[in-house]
Amino acid sequence: MASNDVDGQCDKNEDDVAEGRCIHMETFSEATVLKDMLDQLKNVDEDIRAQEVALQNFKVIIDRYQLQPAVMDPYLEGYINQLMGYIKDPNSSKVLLCLSFKYLYLISKMRSQKLLARYLPHEVTDLPFALKLLQAQDPEDGATWETRYMLLLWLSIACMIPFDLNRLDTMTDGTKSVMDQILELSQFYVCKSDKCKDAAVYLLAKFMTRDDVKKKHLSSYLDWACKIMHSSKLEEMDGKNPVVGIIWNLALLLKYGKREDLLKHAGYLLKNFSACSLSFTGDTLMRKAKIKFLQRLGLIFLKSRVASWRYARGCRSIAVNLATDVKMSSVQPAFVDIPTESEDNDEYDIPEEMEEIIEQLLNGLKDNDTVVRWSAAKGIGRLTGRLPKELADEVVGSILVVFSNMEGEFAWHGGCMALAELGRRGLLLPQRLPDVMSVVREALRYDVRHGKTSVGAPVRDAACYISWSFARAYDPEEMRPFVQQLASSLLIAAVFDRQSCIRKAAAAAFQENVGRQGSFPHGIDIVTVVDYYSVGSLQNCYLNLSIILAQYPEYRFHLIDHLADIKIKHWDVAIRKLTAKALKLLVPFAPDYMAETVLPKVLSLTHVHDLTTQQGAILAVGEVTCGLANYGEKEGQRSVEDVLGETTVECLRTLVEKLEKAHSFRGVGGEQLQQTVANYIQNLSLAKLPFHNLPIIDVWQQFLFECLCKDKLEVQTAALECFPIFVFEYYQSRDGEVQAEKRDALLEHCVQELTSDRNFRRMSHALALGKLPHVLIKGKLDYILPSLCSAAELSDKPELWAEARSDAVKAINSLCLTVDIQQDGPSDSYICKDNLNLVYETFFEAIKDYTIDKRRGDIGAFVREAAMQSLHDLTCKITDVQPAMLSKNIVERTICSFAQQACEKIDRTRALASNLFLQLLHHTPPVPYIPQKDFLLEIFSKDKITNMRWHIQSDSFDLFASLLTIEVFSYHVLLGFIQSAGGLSQSLCVHSTKALDSYMQSEIVKDPKLTFFRKNLIEIFQTYQKVDRVTLPLLNLLGQLFDRQVFINYCKQPENEIFLKELLSLTKREVSKSVQHNKLSSSIKVFCGLMQFSESLRKDCLKQLGIFLCHQYPKIRLNTANELYDTLLLYDDILPEEHADDCMGLIGETKWDQSREEIRPVRNQLWEMLDIPPPVKKTASQS
């Protein structure tokens, strides 16, 4: 019981961790809990489960503070001392020792090994104790690696005692000195491949800095290290691990050791390191270790000094930077230290080895891994700070060389980090800023296309970091010449970059510059809008923030030029579409510039060979043209020809024709270009360009027809969006008169395509008819509507046309919503009494579509969902306008259909039906003729349905099961439950059957109500005889109901036996001549379930079961025997007492999967004992 409680506590804590990581923690709230865990640690026995639970509970708490470990600092010393007390206690068991070290490791992982080492005991007696304990460990034991790790870490602080280690030799029993033992263990673990290597590297670095150790062992240790590097086989993992450990150790040794002690060995180390010819490719950790070692070695070669020439910023007050009333003369200027004469004459003795080191660090800036490049950048910053001014400037020049078109993204990224590091340290002098800022602007838009994607996000991120660091590093006066360009570049990145992390980094850099520099135009106003959260949404950036920024003239044209020159060529189609939309929105801020500069420039790109550029240009041309037309109409009542100019209008007119002649719509990318051109035609139609009655309209129309006939959904969708806008504009004359001849030809073409032999053509043309504007429908509704209704009907091979029927239903719904409703209106222009029944009957037939496809399953669900939505929309519209047109029959059939679909098996369909049912029920004004509306409102009150998840079976089934008590709904709800309860999904069966059981056994349900329940059950069985979609789940449901003895209280009366006999008759008829294994198996359960009732029923059921006992399928015979055996055990009054044991033994011992000739005599013998004539095989003449 205790273990279970602990497990529950552990699970709870894990949930808390997931939530706690998002919360800023002020205090360590589990201090007492953790202290109790440590107190209980000594009570943990040898039970492995108890050990794992204790460790897991401790780990959960520690992991919760992984991101905020400082809150534990006040308690760390107490925890560590308590754990070390367990370790140093001679009476502690091995289990306690192991767990204590595991706890210490978890603390070190959370708070770092360096900080933990400070709290470890380091008295003189601790060193031999820890050494002896480490020597007793098994280096190959994977279960105790934490013990070895912590012992090595403990030795790293214990070995720093301020006494000669030779004095401790008397405290050990070994023949070797303490110094030699520690050195030997450290060298051993440095070459290991587990986590202990990290602690051993740290231990050996600290240990070799001792005066007594370095005098005796430093030279020999360095010889050993170089020997290992020379002899190891780097192509093998066993040879690579020791080299990595040694290089890391040498880097730490160079960090902690004194320069005067290591300088004499520096040349030797570099010579051997270079002679190893280490190919560091393929191993990130080794390459990083190499860079660390080289930079530390370079710091040994150079004297430690603060460069007198470095740049130092004077004023760092944000308040002063932002103050508008402070005169520039009152601001303390930045300054550069001018070296004194003595400093100038100070001899800079730069060793020749530095050239090789710096060269390798510069190469490290081009490494494939970020951690290596970042380490190289920091190393260059450290070394440059110790170089003379001239040499440091050469380093800066070498870094700037990296930013060339010949270099890849890794070199650009490393160079950016190096520049940021130099600027942060004041090593990048102002005279270099013009060159550097030019590079930064290039890096902020660095985006190189590689195939269908691009590289450069890390480069842009690093450029944002440079901008952020320069804001802190330089005085505003130094940055003033670059403010305008830098501010524009940062805002472009913050608003238009594809990566959200780059947009946020650019926004942060802009904000930092506004605060630190104080000279960014409109900085405060922009910072309040372009913040961390607003730039998170790409659509918000392009369509909202860009409009706000365009209000400021300083940024307006930079934004427009970036979109027109860069983003329309972007590899991501989503960016190109957003770019075109953004350009349209920016038209009102610079209409003349857009018309005279941007539009001609983009038009020139519409015939280039690069598909990406061509598509982006066409999108931009369409959107900008539409924007200019709207602007001219709104602002100056100028015609579109005046705004665009005749030359541009002519180019727009001939664009599609030129693309057709160039065969641009064929081959790779042709379909993508078709989507773009459809959008282009849509925008030109919205712009109302004066192309009415010109031949180009026929070209556009033919192009749209071709798009509608494509089998790509994206192309069809683009054409369908364009279609109603195009026909509305160009199928009328400029004075608004419909061109009847063109309209009739269009309708005839679309109606003919409704009978096409291609499903996608039927779909697209049906939707096109549904999207027709009202002006073109008027007078032709009686031609369009019957055609769509015919297209929605079931036909031969219904699985081929399911989507077409669904779209036909959607098109009818769209037409009904487009035209007006008038009861006595003409049927060619209105939804009226003459065509209303046709529409509703089409929807009612569509809602019965249960077409099954072998590959895709129930594809009729698409049609049913479209029909439900259409019924809801039309009923609501009529209720709002002409409620008298609704009849009781229509409303009842509609809402009953929704109730049935709300009880069926597809979650998506069930959720839609439930929501539409409720919307119709609670519609305002009220829908007339809803049956039992008061009762329904009580069941589905607004309080109950709030936040209801209708796709979840447990939430919806119980409510809809209540409708079984209403005679109007009973048939439809029961039909829906049959398909759910008898389906294959386990959860669906459980919840639907549970809802039915609750209804059947409810105290509210009396016998009269059960009567129409039984009547509906029989009616469903009769209506759907031989329809497997219904009868198979119905047989499964009946088997479940009989197993639960649901009918036992109602059907034992003689007057109710007719119901059971009808079930028996229908079941026998259903399985007659059937060869479906699942149907036959389900019927066996029904026959066995019916045996619990009257004697006559039992005999009829046994006769049928006797046939199954000799069925041609062995599985059916086995299933029959098993079910019959269980039934006879459950109902002991079926068998005659004198033959009961013999019958049960015969059924149980017979192998029913033998041949029928062998088991038929057994079956006949069994039936004779039951006093039932055995079945007789029909002869050919009888059949």
From TrEMBL:
Domain Tubulin-folding cofactor D ARM repeats, chain residue ranges per copy: 285-524
Source organism, top-level taxon: Eukaryota
Domain Tubulin-folding cofactor D C-terminal: 893-1076
Alphabetical list of InterPro entries matching this protein: ARM-like (IPR011989), ARM-type_fold (IPR016024), ARM_TBCD_2nd (IPR058033), HEAT_type_2 (IPR021133), TBCD (IPR033162), TBCD_C (IPR022577)
One Gene Ontology molecular-function label: beta-tubulin binding
GO biological process per UniProt: adherens junction assembly; bicellular tight junction assembly; microtubule cytoskeleton organization; post-chaperonin tubulin folding pathway; tubulin complex assembly
Keywords: Chaperone
HEAT repeat ranges, renumbered to this chain: 357-394
This protein's name: Tubulin-specific chaperone D
Organism: Octopus bimaculoides
Lineage: Eukaryota, Metazoa, Spiralia, Lophotrochozoa, Mollusca
